[in-house]
């Protein structure tokens, strides 16, 4: 019963196969037109493939070699005529053969069938040797062929892969041809899928073949083919997965053929045999037909393998991590399993493995590492030392390469080698000495080869006019330094690798030793590049040393070993050199390279971070030099200076850079004043003072009295140097800018004096309440006069009041008179002193500084430098609002600067004249009526008066010549001048604007006149008094454009007139002349029009009416009981 149960599924499956195999066999044998029957044959083949694979996935126990032989019968008929069928049929047959091999024949494939299938598949893939292909083979067919070939070699009995002495049963020649086809597929430019299948077939050959002599026969061609694919230039054209597969296959080939276990007998013979015996043995072997494994063969093969490996190991520069990992595994496998047989290749294998070794965290503990091999084979340590020394010696040469990847690989290799040497305790003083020199020379090479980056001054993003606060953790832009060397973006990876090498090069003691050796080059080198490289290297080494020792100090105390003392001494020497570099900036004629100064700033900041608040005494020496770099011409130095100031402020416990400078302002200001007093005319002093004041704000201004005095002295001594004078006035301008922001500008104590508002206001009716208040004040004055008149008469006392006066000795009349006169004089002196003391108490130091600066400007407003004149005028404009509240101190200053200020209106440079007009306008706002007589005196001066200047500016702005009469000017009808006309209806005629352009009509005629109707009509708005303005044709200049110099100068003149009329009392005659000059622009200047209407609104209206600049006037007809008014009609209405 059990036999029937087992055979029943097999029988059913056989019946299914039979229903397909019989028609397929008949069709293949009897077919006359192979092409016509190819479709039906393909269907049968696919049906068989589906049946077989389905059964194999469900229950492959019923599949055996007999069923496979049964299915192979019709397939053999198809394969016999395969050249006549399409390649799709052949491909389907090959796919079915793979199913039969894997699940049917398995290891029971006969030798004859094995050879036939090898030849069939090899010819199908690679063609018949010596014959041309009749048709192209698709890629899919080749892939199926390699898959079937690999399955055939993997599943066959290993005995089939050995040499046989029986004629006709040796399968090795057929297998050799198949290996050749595989190697050709690997080396040719075929798709990656085909190459992967070919490599898989090669792996199957070297896994399944047990005969080492057979594998030795295949070894040269296989290594040559795989090495060709893994070597340049083909490796650049190959996908990384193909490279990884080839490396894994090459590792398998070497281990299975040349592994120490495979050739241990030959290795023993090499150790015991003499050279003569080896030579005799090799001569006898040369007569043999096949390769025999002899010691001579092993030596020759090892030499050839070293050549092949030297080409393959160039893959270490490949960027793919998968390829590098596969190459590392190859090196480790050969060093471990082929340690003796490939001893000649140990040096290059150790070097490559050292270059590709991963970090401990990334490497699996289950895999053998190079460190494990060194523990097993101590002789490998010599190879590591040799490789590391050659790398260190050749590092400067590698840094000359134009390939950044090559540089990074060289640096990374030294780092990995150094880590392994430290881990294995392989100390070498020679290596340490050469490492310091190599690192310095490499950095010098990189600096000379690198191009200076194009630095864009991006400090516009840093607002230096505001106090610079500390950088928070969320914004580290100004808390980190930009790189000093290798600053280009393309060298960023190389710079990072170099930094990793320096930070992890060895223990802290080694880093201190290397840094100490660099200090001699830092101090004594005359070559700037060498000095910079040594300085940077020493600083980086000491920083890394401190970082390492900080981690170790948390666990152990090494103070007794003296390492900490050596470390501190080395850094102190480096810091002393840095302070000398910073201090020598303003003293040397030619400044040092900016990289050296930037490194000095970094060392200073790092020292501050270590000492924290204990660094405050060092600020006396370093704060001023650091601040001088804010005015450097190099954007890199300015950025470094800002970062250093932020770090200093943070480390020393200050809340901001402003607090840092204010707290240390005394000796900073002393340093600046000392340089100014010693005639140090370098721009560093003025620049640092300007930046310092800008950073600090108004808080520093009260401390600047001595410094401003030094600036005044420098101005007296160097007034003939315009550039330097301009720099000094930049300082004074910054003092003014920050001083006017002070909230305690006027009074040192008590209430501040109220500011006087000089703006003119129009007449406002007082109303009943105002009248009553005025009457009350008058009655109070009358009552006061009466009470004073009723008081009894008291003579003037002849004796001074006060205690003790009555006890004095009686004097004569003459003596009393003399004493009274002396007392009166004393009283006057005391009263004067009290007034002066009161006056001095009122003004703060900031106010006094601003007063002195304003007084000084009068002497330099005639400077030949236009920019200086303009900056001085801007300074005056800025300081006037701050000084004007105290009239007793301000008005004398106005009297001083007035003459030279009005002269600047006639400056040949328009931008200076514009600044002068603005300054005069500010002066009018601050002084008010005090300038009335002065304005009147300069208004009508012949040729150079203010009126003549405005007429000239207006003519230039309007595009007209001086003296040209205005056209389109109308007069009131019936008035003087006789230019007006009155209509018959009694209406008043005024010129109007044309409807199309809105400009005034150029001629006065009936068509261009508007009749004003004084009769009934809509009421007008009280805001403009019933007047509607016409757009003046003069508001837009006719020449030069809106932004031309003449137009901007005219706008400044209009602004000056507005300020004069608004804040200064002008006489009627002068007002009429101003109105005559400005009437054309009043419609477009609301502020000017309002100011002039405040002074004399009727005159403004009348002049506008005369010019025809009013659209119309609507007046209600008066109504009064008992009276009648005549209606004024226009146009005869």
From TrEMBL:
Region (Disordered): 781-844, 961-982
Composition-biased stretches (Acidic residues): 815-831
Source organism (scientific name): Podospora bellae-mahoneyi
Cross-referenced InterPro entries: ARM-like, ARM-type_fold, TELO2-interacting_protein_1, TPR_TTI1_C, TPR_TTI1_N, Tti1, TTI1_rpt
Domain TTI1 C-terminal TPR as annotated: residue spans: 806-935
Segments crossing the lipid bilayer: none
TTI1 N-terminal TPR domain segment(s): 14-360
Listed name of the protein: TEL2-interacting protein 1
A Pfam family: TTI1
UniProt feature, compositional bias: Basic and acidic residues: 781-793, 804-814
Start-end of Gly residues biased regions: 970-982
Phylogenetic placement of the source organism: Eukaryota, Fungi, Dikarya, Ascomycota, Pezizomycotina
């Amino acid at each position: 019963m059990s036999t029937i149960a087992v055979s029943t599924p097999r029988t059913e499956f056989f019946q299914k196969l039979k229903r397909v195999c019989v028609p397929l066999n008949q069709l293949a044998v009897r077919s006359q037109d192979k092409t016509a029957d190819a479709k039906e044959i393909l269907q049968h083949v696919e049906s068989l493939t589906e049946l077989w694979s389905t059964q194999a996935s469900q229950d492959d126990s019923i599949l055996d070699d007999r069923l496979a032989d049964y299915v192979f019968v019709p397939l053999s008929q198809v394969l016999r005529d395969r050249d006549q069928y399409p390649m799709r049929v052949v491909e389907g047959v090959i796919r079915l053969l793979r199913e039969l091999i894997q699940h049917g024949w398995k290891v029971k494939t006969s030798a004859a069938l094995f050879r036939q299938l090898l030849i069939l598949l090899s010819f199908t893939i690679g063609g018949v040797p010596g014959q041309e292909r009749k048709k192209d083979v698709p890629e899919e067919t080749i892939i199926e062929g390699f898959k079937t070939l690999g399955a055939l070699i993997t599943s066959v009995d290993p005995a089939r892969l050995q040499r046989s002495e029986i004629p006709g049963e040796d399968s090795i020649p057929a297998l050799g041809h198949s290996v050749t086809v595989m190697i050709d597929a690997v080396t040719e430019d075929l798709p990656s899928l085909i190459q992967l299948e070919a490599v898989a077939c090669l792996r199957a050959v070297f896994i399944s073949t047990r005969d080492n002599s057979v594998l030795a026969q295949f070894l040269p061609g296989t290594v040559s083919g795989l090495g060709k694919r893994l070597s340049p230039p083909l490796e650049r054209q190959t996908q990384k997965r193909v490279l990884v597969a080839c490396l894994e296959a090459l590792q398998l080939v070497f281990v299975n053929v040349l592994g120490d276990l495979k050739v241990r007998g030959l290795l023993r013979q090499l150790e015991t045999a003499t050279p003569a015996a080896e030579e005799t043995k090799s001569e006898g072997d040369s007569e043999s037909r096949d390769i025999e494994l002899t010691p001579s063969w092993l030596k020759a093969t090892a030499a050839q393998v070293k050549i092949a490996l030297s080409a393959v190991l160039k893959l270490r520069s490949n960027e793919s991590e998968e390829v590098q990992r596969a190459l590392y595994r190859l090196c480790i496998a050969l060093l471990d399993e082929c340690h003796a047989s490939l001893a000649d290749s140990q040096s290059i294998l150790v070097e490559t493995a050292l270059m590709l070794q991963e970090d401990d965290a990334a490497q699996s503990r289950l895999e053998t590492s190079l460190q494990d091999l060194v523990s097993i084979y101590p002789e490998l340590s010599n190879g590591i030392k040799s490789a590391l020394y050659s790398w260190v010696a050749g590092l400067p040469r590698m840094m000359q390469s134009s390939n950044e990847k090559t540089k990074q690989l060289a640096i990374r290799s030294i780092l990995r080698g150094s880590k392994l040497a430290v881990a294995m305790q392989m100390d070498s003083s020679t290596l340490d000495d050469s490492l310091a020199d190599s690192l310095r020379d490499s950095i010098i090479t990189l600096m000379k080869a690198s191009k200076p980056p194009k630095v864009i001054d991006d400090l516009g993003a840093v607002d230096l006019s505001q106090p610079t606060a500390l950088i928070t953790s969320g914004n580290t832009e100004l808390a980190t330094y930009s790189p000093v060397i290798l600053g280009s973006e393309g060298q960023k990876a190389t710079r990072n690798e170099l930094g990793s090498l320096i930070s992890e090069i060895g223990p802290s003691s080694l880093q201190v030793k290397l840094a100490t050796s660099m200090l001699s080059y830092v101090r004594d080198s005359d070559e700037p590049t060498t000095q910079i490289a040594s300085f940077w290297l020493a600083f980086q080494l000491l920083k890394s040393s401190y970082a390492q020792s900080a981690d170790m100090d948390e666990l152990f105390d090494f103070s007794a070993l003296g390492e900490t003392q050596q470390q501190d001494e080395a850094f102190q020497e480096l810091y002393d050199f840095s302070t000398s570099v910073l201090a020598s900036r303003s003293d040397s004629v030619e400044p040092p390279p900016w990289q050296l100064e930037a490194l000095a700033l970094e060392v200073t900041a790092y020292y501050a971070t270590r000492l924290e608040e204990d660094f405050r005494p060092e600020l006396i020496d370093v704060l001023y030099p650091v601040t001088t770099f804010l005015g450097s011409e190099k954007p890199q130095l300015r950025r470094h200076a800002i970062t250093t100031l932020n770090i200093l402020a943070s480390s020393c416990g200050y809340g901001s850079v402003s607090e840092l400078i204010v707290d240390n302002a005394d000796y900073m200001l002393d340093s600046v004043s000392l340089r100014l007093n010693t005639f140090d005319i370098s721009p560093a002093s003025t620049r640092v003072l300007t930046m310092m004041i800008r950073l600090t704000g108004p808080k520093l201004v009260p401390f600047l009295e001595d410094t401003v005095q030094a600036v005044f002295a420098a101005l007296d001594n160097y007034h003939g140097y315009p550039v330097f004078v301009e720099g000094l006035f930049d300082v004074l301008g910054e003092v003014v800018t920050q001083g006017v922001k002070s909230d305690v500008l006027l009074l040192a104590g008590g209430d501040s004096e109220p500011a006087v508002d000089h703006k003119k206001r129009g007449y406002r009716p007082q109303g009943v309440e105002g009248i009553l208040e005025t009457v009350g004040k008058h009655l109070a004055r009358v009552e006061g006069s009466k009470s004073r008149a009723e008081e009894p008469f008291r003579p003037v006392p002849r004796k001074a009041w006060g205690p003790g006066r009555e006890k004095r000795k009686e004097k004569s009349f003459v003596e009393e008179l003399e004493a009274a006169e002396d007392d009166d004089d004393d009283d006057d002196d005391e009263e004067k002193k009290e007034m002066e003391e009161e006056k001095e108490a009122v003004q703060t130091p900031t106010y006094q500084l601003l007063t002195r600066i304003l007084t000084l400007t009068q002497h330099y407003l005639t400077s030949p430098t236009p920019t200086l004149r303009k900056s001085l005028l801007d300074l005056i404009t800025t300081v006037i609002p701050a000084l004007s509240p105290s009239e007793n101190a301000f008005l004398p200053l106005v009297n001083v600067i007035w003459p030279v200020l009005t002269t600047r209106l006639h400056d040949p440079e328009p931008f200076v004249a514009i600044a002068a007009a603005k300054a005069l306008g500010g002066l009018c706002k601050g002084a008010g009526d005090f300038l009335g007589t002065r304005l009147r005196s300069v208004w009508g001066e012949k040729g150079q008066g203010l009126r003549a200047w405005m007429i000239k500016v207006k003519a230039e702005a309007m595009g007209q010549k001086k003296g040209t009469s205005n056209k389109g000017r109308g007069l009131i009808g019936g008035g003087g001048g006789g230019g007006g006309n009155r209509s018959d209806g009694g209406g008043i005629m005024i010129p109007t604007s044309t409807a199309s352009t809105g400009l005034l009509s150029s001629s006065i005629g009936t068509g261009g006149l508007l009749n004003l109707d004084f009769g009934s009509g809509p009421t007008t708005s009280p805001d403009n008094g019933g007047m509607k303005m016409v757009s003046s044709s003069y508001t837009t200049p006719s020449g030069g454009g809106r932004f031309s110099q003449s137009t901007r100068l005219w706008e400044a003149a209009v602004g000056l007139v507005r300020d004069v009329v608004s804040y200064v009392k002008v006489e009627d005659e002068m007002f009429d002349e101003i109105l005559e000059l400005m009437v054309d622009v009043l419609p477009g200047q609301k502020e000017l029009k309002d100011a002039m209407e405040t002074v004399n609104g009727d005159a403004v209206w009348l002049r506008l009416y005369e010019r025809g600049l009013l659209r119309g006037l609507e007046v209600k007809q008066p109504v009064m009981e008992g009276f009648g008014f005549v209606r004024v009609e226009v146009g005869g209405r």
